[in-house]
């Protein structure tokens, strides 16, 4: 499975690729699609398994697609 199948935007896919990542970790495969749907996720995994990216990538996408009207852009 690649990041392409998780529903991330082209901009985020390019950034992930530029950082040298080609395949999501198990926690990323499970968390990213759920977070993109706007659902809450609680996950536990060993240090270095990609939890931060697994939560941050879909949040960045949601924030960039749903800016706060009349306010500063959070991203």
Mean pLDDT: 90
Radius of gyration: 13 Å
User: Tell me, what's the shape?
Assistant: globular
What's the tally of helices? 3
Order of helices and strands: HHH
Q: Could you state the oligomeric state of the chains shown?
A: single chain
Poorly predicted regions: none
What descriptive keywords fit this protein?
mainly alpha, 75 residues
Would you give an account of this structure?
47% of the residues lie in helices and 0% in strands. With 75 residues, it is mostly helical. Helix 2 runs parallel beside helix 3 (51-65). The radius of gyration is 13 Å and the shape is globular.
Short description:
The chain has 75 residues and is mainly alpha-helical.
List the helices and strands and how they pair.
Layout: H1 10-18, H2 26-36, H3 51-65
